Amino acid sequence: MDIAHLPRRTFLRGAAGLAVAGAAGLVLPRAAQAATEPRIYSCAEWGARPPTDALTTLDHPANRILIHHIASANSTDYSLAHAFQVARDDQHDHIDNNGWSDTGQHFTVSRGGYRLEGRHGSLDALRGRTTMIQGAHCPGQNTNAIGIENEGLYTSVEPPETQFASLVVFCAYICRQYGIPVEEIKGHRDFYNTECPGDRLYAKLPLLRSEVAKALKSM
């Protein structure tokens, strides 16, 4: 099973044990960490290009999550293959058109609910919990906020339920890993003059925070 591909209850049950161990100061084996991590496809898995320049690893954890939308077509192709193509197209756009070294955001969630690493090194940093990769998703926030792009355009329609449910699980995992309070799950427009992440997705951020808070309480 994959989408949101890890059942929410299964994720939370596994995360509960890890949270207790972490609070006790225990070092858990990588296998135990992997058992509680939702499925996230790495840059290598979706066929990312190498960065054009060296990326910066920052010696501190993230303290915020910024929610974006790609402002792409609201595709009805919810397959993994399509999610991989979205990631490749996004990276090409950011490197070739924006002149960035790599994909700007740290992670992406497809309309089918697949979670993908965006910027190289972001997944390993998240797993490690103490560092982050400098992003390029929002001026003034790239050294402290994890950027999550959501495939689609959400100015007048809401994201599919599968995508939103996957986003909840993903944000809960990121908040737990970095110790980010749910109040720090924000929208791109909160820090930049933009319509992103679209009126309809932005309106769902209070629900996102509340669902993530419920998830964290169950850990």
From TrEMBL:
Top-level taxon: Bacteria
Family: Belongs to the N-acetylmuramoyl-L-alanine amidase 2 family.
All copies of domain N-acetylmuramoyl-L-alanine amidase, residue ranges: 50-198
Signal sequence residues: 1-34
Domain Peptidoglycan recognition protein family: 38-192
Transmembrane segments: none
UniProt GO MF annotations: N-acetylmuramoyl-L-alanine amidase activity; zinc ion binding
Matches recorded under SMART domains: Ami_2 (SM00644), PGRP (SM00701)
Highest classification ranks of the organism: Bacteria, Bacillati, Actinomycetota, Actinomycetes, Pseudonocardiales
InterPro entries cross-referenced by the UniProt entry: Amidase/PGRP_sf, Amidase_domain, PGRP, PGRP_domain_met/bac, TAT_signal
PROSITE patterns: TAT
Species whose genome carries this gene: Amycolatopsis rifamycinica
The entry's keywords: Signal
Pfam families: Amidase_2
Protein name: N-acetylmuramoyl-L-alanine amidase
GO biological process: one example: peptidoglycan catabolic process
